[in-house]
Amino acid sequence: MGGAIEEVRSPVEEPEPAVSPRAKTAHRGLRRPLPRWARRAAPVAVILAVVGGGTAFMRSSFFGADEVRVIGASHLSDARVIRDAGVQGENVLSLNTGVVEARLERDPWIANAVVTRSLPGTVTIRVTERTPVAAVQVAGGFELVAADGVTLGGTQRPGRLPVIPTNTVPGGATGGFLAPARVVGALAPDVRSEVMLAYEGITGEVFLRLRSGTVVRFGPLTSVTEKADALAAVLGWAGDQGARVLTIDLRFPRAPSARLSDGSTVTP
After folding, report:
1. Which of 203, 183, 204, 205 is nearest to 195 (CA)?
2. Can you say how many angstroms the Cα of residue 171 is from the centroid of all Cα atoms in its chain?
3. Is this structure's pTM higher than 0.85?
4. What is the residue-wise DSSP string for 1-23?
């Protein structure tokens, strides 16, 4: 049987092309590792880029205070509170609310201020205003005063506010009105409106003269709330009884006494 016999050759691996020493050197140069300082600096550079971009965004107008809300203002206008706060357009993120509160409380009409913020651009200001409870007699008119003794500004007419006359107040208009102001400030508004004069005597006791002519011996500045309640109770009793009261003694608020026009003394 005849046939052609094919020659089978074993595969022979092709030799790698020869590389010159110069080419090898150049290749190794391309893969040379970064210096140590460069490896350390690269992450820092990335962080700085991110932080720098974030800082710029936080300082941008996106967080500007474009809405300022005022809650609790009555005597003061919202516009005045916003102006005194000085927050319009300020960056809400970096706003120091404590500084703003202290700035607002420099206004004598503001007893307390609370400033809060809501991102991205809202600032809320809550104020508690002082209320004038008496009018201190001064040259040329009267000075309104709050229950804590803070003066609120001048006025020509006291209206229905109790008057603290400076000629009977030890220390004049700068020191002697604190006790009377605290006393009338503790009274209920309807009772306070019936007080014509409030003054501190030389012994430190506070006296009130009502519009009806009744003189109230409030006594020292102790148990102020109890004495205020006792005065309201005595006046309520006198109104119900139709009694004309000449004097009321509140030094012992649990047993107040009243001397009537007929000369009798009662403990309502």
Report:
1. 183
2. 32
3. no
4. ---PPPPP----PPPPPP--HHH
